[in-house]
Amino acid sequence: MQRILTRGEIETLDRTSIPRLILPAPDIFKIRAERLTTLAPDNPIKEYLELIALLSEAQQHLLEQDWDLPALDEVALAQAQAHGMPPFTASTHQRDSIWRTMLSALVAQLLQQDALPDAIRNNLTKLAKDTADSPDTIEQQADALLAQELANLDLAHAPFIMAALQVYWTLLVIRLNSQQLPASTPYGLCPCCGSQPVSTTVQMGGPKEQIRYATCSLCATQWHIVRVKCTHCEDTKTIAYHTLSEGSEAVKAESCDACQQYRKILYLNKEQFAEAFADDLASLTLDILMGEANYFRANNNPYFWQAAEPQ
Ligand SMILES: [Zn+2]
Ligand SMILES: [Zn+2]
Question: Which CATH superfamily is domain 18-179 in?
Answer without folding.
Answer: FdhE-like domain (3.90.1670.10)
